[in-house]
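Hey team,

Filing this mostly as a record. A colleague (T.K.) asked me to run one chain through the structure pipeline before their review meeting, and I want the input and output archived in the tracker in case anyone asks later how it was produced. No errors, nothing strange. Just documentation.

Input sequence:
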Amino acid sequence: MSSVADYALPNPIHENRSGLIGKPVDRYEGPLKVTGTAAYAYEVVPPSPPAYGVMTPAAIARGRVVAVETAEAEASPGVHLVWSHLNAPRQAPRGTKVHPRSTGVSKPVFDSDRVTYFGQSVAFVLADTLENATAAAALVKVSYEAEPIEVVLAQNVGRAEQPPGEEDVEIGDFERGFSEAPVQLDQSWTTPLQNHCQMEPCATTAWWEGPRRCVVHTSVQMVKPAQHGLAETLGLDRDDVHLMTRYIGGGFGGKGQTYEDLVLAALASRELGRPVKVAFTRQQMFHATIHRPATIQRVRLGADKDGRLTALSLMTTTHCERDGDFTEHASNFCRSLYAAPNRLTGHRLVRLDLPHAGAMRAPGEASGMLSLECAMDELAERLGLDPVELRIRNEPEVDPETGKPFSLRQLVRCMKEGAQMFGWDRRNPRPRQTREGRWWVGMGMAAAIRGNFLLPAKASFSVDRDGVITVRQGMTDIGTGSYTVLAQIAAETMGVPLEQVRVEIGDSELPPAPGSGGQFGAATAGSAALAAGMNLRKAIAELAVSDPGSPLHGGDPAKVQFQDGGVALENRAESLASLIARAAPDGLTVEGDSRPAADARNWSQHTYGAHFCEVGVEADTGEVRVRRMLGVFGAGRIINWKTARSQLTGGMIWGVGSALTEANSPDPRYGSLIGQDLAQYLAPVQLDIGELDAIMLDEVDDKANPMGIKGVGELGISGAGAAVANAIYNACGVRVRDYPITPDKLIAGGL
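Output structure:
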């Protein structure tokens, strides 16, 4: 990992002389977004008038296309072309990779007559307007030879198998430890299929500059895999694809990969010789992009009478598409959460005739913590212990499975301080004891954990003759605040005001970064930015002391300070603008890179939190209202208080949705998802959320990266739904283990 020690200069992020680190800075790109001038992928203005593409989805879940009638669509007004597997342009075979170092593989469209999920694109219409393309697409008639389907996880658990390349993890002798435990709990929980529901659908605007230069603006979280994948598909050199994704209207993992819109827009633009725009409809987003798969989770806990776990097991069965192997690793998190000498965790996978399963915000933890954290609540009740106290008694000194020391772990502090701030001592431990009018009132809590990761990344810093610092990086911003935190890091590192910083990201021609996802974005991109900034500081310091025209001339470059938009040495100073204009009128540009430290694997690195929730349950109808929620989190140094809090509270709200409303189900007759838009898929809205707050502990994890920062984007949802479920039980005495917890389930449980 690049380290500030490499530069013989102090770490400006630790010093925080300008006070920008941790400050609630407004979004860098906020004015562009609120004025409607931030051009998202579909809104980019191409160099000439575009044509518009619309995809026709399959009406079966499994089988083959036997006929495609396009004459009527081709004769429709404004139509330029109609494609299917019968006449699609030639593309590289699926999954191939010509360039050995490519981070993407070929993903051709219409490469066979096979249909593998309901909603799969089977035809494409390109017309002069969106309205004409939509009308013509409805005229394409597709005939199918349907095959029997299997789409319900619970009906196919007998076909579950070990995911490829995985083995169960057992420490000690779980079966013996569990059977000998004085107190035992053995229960199963189920979580449903869920959809991402980003505000911006997947979309692409494409055009060509000459016969081999493709320019695409697309909505995707990772720049390089998208660029490389499109190049592989089209048979181009990677540098012949210029891919940009400057503004993204939500990703949540669902835009961690590309879809047919990218390839179709590029192919159609080349075929037609003019720009092309292609976007998914909301209904297509539900079927033709990835989803969080359903799970069945069995939790077994064995404890002594003092509440110390002697045996712990979480085994998860989940699903993926027929030809895939994505596994929702809902058991992994508990390998580092609680101490227990005998442990068993693992996963089973069922392949179904459904759209592709994939990563969705906090993959693994978001589903898995809905079981284990409720199981801990049940165990606490059986033992007569407070749920917070039970967790503290099972706090490990080192990682319970690897034996590695924790880099920094403040879970107990999160729970203790959260309990105090929330008024946890006022909770009646007996359920169904507190009532206000028609409402039963209860409190619940849950722990939170999410792994911390750092990936390789690069960045460049430039300074021009006006003293303006420009950060360039192939990073993305999916609404999390990447623009803003990079600007803060740059301003603090270079000692300039925020107004003197420019940030350019989301472009394949910029120094590469892994993009947004996995809660690694800010730490990874920011570490590379710090490294680049330190390199620029060194270059500027050496320029200043070697320039006879500078008041710093002849000084020690290691002692040069950067502050107030200038450079200073003892009592001598000048502005960056005057130095650069005189000594380097063309400006200076340097690069920096970061990667995990050599000893990173020697530490168990995570972020932590504790959720507290109070709910009301209507005594007759079973309606649940979240009255208030509090989350307390330890997630390293916080770069921007405002954007970090927004991420945490957003995750907590999503946790409410996971507990109470969010679910989709496949229709076993057709393989389609029953919920196909935002009217049918119930995400929480403003009136569903009561008082909400997120507290971030002061924390610097020096094992994580040179800045001591971690991520927060997925921590907020981890465990939040379990706190809601536990509060519901405390309120009304009904334990529901099949999410979401809806009024009918509470009534059936004896409300």
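Quick notes for T.K.: The chain has three domains: 41-57+62-147+202-279, 292-453+601-748, 457-595. The two ends are 56 Å apart (CA to CA).
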